[in-house]
Amino acid sequence: MLKAVGQVLFSSGLQTPKFTAEESKGQDYEVRTYHATNWVSTTVEGMQQGAAMSTGFKRLFRFIQGSNEKNVKVEMTAPVSCLVNPGAGPACETSFTVSFFIPEEHQADPPRPTDLENIFVESRKPFTAYVRTYGGFSNEQKSREELLRLVESLQRDGVPYKETPYYVAGYDSPFKLTNRTNEVWILKKEDGE
Asked: What does residue 157 show for φ and ψ, rounded to 5 degrees?
């Protein structure tokens, strides 16, 4: 248990999902095509991103600690992603789907969650995202500011994108104080969408 907590809190050499870097029209964002991968996910409805991320993280941490049908511990990975699907109005709840990338050794046959009411294995098809990276400690306001900067860049460059949903992603534990990595991802609008 202590080793796992240490990995989550202090490691920077975590497995990450594979992607192919595409050519970008702007210098202030990247274009990545993520490969098909499995993630373990949980959806939290709420008004605040921070509270939803905390609830989701705790559920998923129990899963990687062995709360799954195989009773196996699963290595921590990065990033912790959160698909944000805003509600229809200003006072409506938002749907936050918090996810951990499943490590390569479990990709072909992921452990099934025992908490089927809250946790599910998500098979993500390949997708292309516009990615803006930023440092420091992130919160809902900071991720929203970075998201707006990314939208401005995409509009400037005239590239097709989906307004919602979008992702926020964090690569570091809350105990890492310097050289932190956070991202916002906006999905590319494909032909016919």
From this structure: -90, -5
- Which ranges of the chain have pLDDT less than 50? 1-11
Bridge partners of 38, per DSSP, are 123
Render the burial of 42-63: b for 16+ CB within 10 Å, e for the rest: bbbebeebeebbebbbebbbbb
Cα–Cα distance, 147 to 193 (Å, whole number)? 21
| pLDDT value, residue 9 | 41
pTM as predicted: 0.90
- Which stretches does DSSP call E strand in the chain? 19-22, 30-34, 37-46, 80-85, 94-101, 119-124, 127-134, 161-170, 182-188
Is domain 2-188 in CATH 3.40.718.10, yes or no? no
SS3 103: coil
CB 32 within 8 A of CB 128: yes
DSSP state of 113: B
Domain edges within the chain: 2-188
For 158, the token pair is 């005239």
Cα separation of 108 and 173, whole Å? 27
